[in-house]
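This section describes the prediction task in plain terms. A model, or a person checking by hand, is given the sequence of a single protein chain and must write out its three-dimensional structure as a string of C-alpha cells. No templates, partner chains or ligands are provided. The sample shown here is typical of the held-out split.
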Amino acid sequence: YWKDLNLIRKLISQLINAKPEEIAFLINTSSGTNLIARLMNNGEILYPKDEFPASIHIFKRLGFICKKINPQPNNCYSIEDFKKSINNTTKILIQSHVQYLTGFRQDLKKFGDFCTDNNLINIINATQSFGAFNIDVKKQNIDILACSALKWACCGYGIGILYLKQELLKEDMLPFTSWLSTEDPFLMDNENLNLILEARSMDGLGGTPNFPALLTLKGFYELLKEIGKGNIQEGVNQISKRILYLTNEFLTRIKELNLKIITPTSIKYRSGIITVENDKAETIYYNLLKNHIYISLRNQPNNTKKTLLRFSFHYYNNLNDIEKTIKILKKLV
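The expected answer:
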C-alpha cells in the first residue's frame, strides 16, 4: 500500500503538472480548505457570489474579510469584475474551476496570470473539473488547488486531493500533523517531531490515508491513459470533447422547451453541467426519477423554493440517454 501511495502521488502530480512533494491526499475538498485556511495570513478574500460553500466557509469562520463578486447576466465571472474589487488589503482569490450550480467554467490561465500580476494567492476548487478538463498548475499559475475525486475520477467518497505550491509550505505553519508526518514514522518514536516539509506530511491529516479510494484513483489514471492511447493529457482532452459534445446536443434539444437555461451556453464557458429553471421543477424531477434518470433538484442560494434542475453529463452518457430525457421533458413542460 505504501509503495502504491508514492506511485499514485507521482501519477497525480503528472496529471496536473505539479511536483510529487506538492501533493497531499485528504478526505474531501472541505478537509483541504480547512487546512489551507490555517496556512494563510490575514487579508481580504474575493470569491464568486455563487461559489460552493466548502470553498469559503472556513475562511469566514476564521474571521477573514470575504467579499462577494457578482456574476454577469449570463452567469459568467469576468476578470474585470474581480479587478474592480481589488484594494490594498486584497490577498487571496478563491473560486471553483467549474461552478457547481451553473456549470460556468473559468479560464484558469487568464485568471492565474491576473493573480500573478496583482500578487494574489490563487486558490482553486477543482471538484467539478478534475479529470474532465485539463489543469496545469504551473502554466495556469495556481498556488493552491483542492478537490474531491468522487465525480469525474469515479473514486467514490473519502478521497480528497490537495496541491500546495512548495514555496507556501513552511514547517511552523503546518496546521495538522501526526505520527505519519514525521521522518521515519515506523520507528514508533513518540519523541519524534521531525516533520517532513512536504505536502504529504498532511496525508490523512497526519494519519493513515484512505487506501481503497487511493487505489481507485490509480485506476482512473490508467483509464485516462487508455482513453488517450498512452497520453494522460490526451485522455483528459478526449473526455472534455465528449462532455462538450453531449452538452451541446442536450442544449440544442431543450431550447425548444419551456425551460430557462441558467448555464452559460458558450462552449468556452461550458462544462458537464447544464442547469435550467422551471416553476414545475419538483414535478419534473420526480418524473425523471421514476424513469431512472438521475439529476439534481436545486434551489437558488438563499431561496428555499426548488426551481432548478441540474443535468450533469458524464463521459459514459450517450445520445440515447439524452433522447429518453427529452421525451419525458416534452410531456411535462
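For orientation: The chain has a mean pLDDT of 94.
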